[in-house]
């Protein structure tokens, strides 16, 4: 017997209802998202040297407490900067001014120490570097480079350590990349007076004598 017209319409309505149920039934969260056509990629977050909340007003009382030495400045008679740090400009941790690091270090051997506020070996090494800086005087420039975006914590740590060395804020790790330093901390970079790299030393120093020894070996300056 052939189904009646009413029966055929009932069957068709049932099929439509089932299709609607399947369409709206919740899917497993592991299902892949529907494919989309080509389009612009979402913009990636660019590395930053310091956190947005570490503005001048927030850092002012921390800077006063830390009482860091001013960052080195280019001299009038120094040669044009050279080496891997050319063109890299940073914020001076002591006062927020801009520092062209290669220009500031040009004309004198330099000890550049890469550190971060959370680094335990750095906490032991920074006072050692301050002792060495006091010993060597103006023969060698000693400067720190803070390699984490949290500048507030950097200033707090330096105050705790009673370390007043001049330093720059490099939360994006540009110095580390420029000199080819390994991704460890602390790292000490020895620069010749012409800005070229004499040594990259990924080791913590435990005495001013140790620092003086490697500086004399690689830069020829005794202290």
From TrEMBL:
Segments forming domain Thioredoxin: 74-220
GO MF assignments: oxidoreductase activity
Biological processes annotated in GO: cytochrome complex assembly
Broad class of the protein's primary localization: other
Keyword flag Transmembrane helix: yes
Keyword annotations of the record: Cytochrome c-type biogenesis, Disulfide bond, Membrane, Redox-active center, Signal-anchor, Transmembrane, Transmembrane helix
Localization of this protein: Cell envelope
Biased composition range(s): Pro residues: 32-41
Pfam families xrefs: Redoxin
Any single Gene Ontology cellular-component annotation: cell envelope
Region (Disordered): 31-52
Transmembrane segments: 6-25
Protein name: TlpA family protein disulfide reductase
């Amino acid at each position: 017997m052939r189904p009646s017209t009413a029966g055929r319409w009932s069957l068709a309505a049932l099929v439509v209802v089932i299709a609607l149920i399947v369409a709206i039934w919740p899917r497993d969260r592991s299902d892949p998202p529907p494919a989309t056509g080509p389009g612009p990629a979402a913009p990636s977050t660019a590395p930053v040297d310091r956190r947005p909340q570490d503005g001048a007003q927030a850092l002012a009382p921390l800077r006063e407490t830390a009482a860091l030495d001013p960052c080195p400045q280019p001299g009038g008679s120094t040669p044009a900067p050279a080496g891997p740090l050319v063109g890299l400009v940073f914020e001076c941790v002591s006062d927020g001014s801009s520092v062209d690091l290669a220009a500031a270090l040009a004309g004198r051997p330099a000890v550049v120490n890469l550190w971060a506020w959370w680094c335990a070996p750095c906490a032991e090494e920074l006072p050692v570097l301050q002792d060495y800086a006091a010993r060597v005087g103006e023969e060698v420039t000693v400067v720190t480079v803070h390699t984490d975006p949290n500048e507030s914590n950097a200033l707090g740590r330096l105050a705790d350590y009673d370390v007043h060395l001049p330093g720059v804020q490099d939360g994006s790790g540009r110095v580390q990349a420029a000199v080819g330093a390994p991704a460890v901390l602390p790292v000490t970079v020895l620069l010749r007076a012409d800005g070229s790299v004499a040594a990259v030393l990924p080791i913590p120093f435990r005495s001013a004598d140790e620092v003086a020894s490697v500086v004399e070996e690689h830069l020829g300056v005794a202290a």
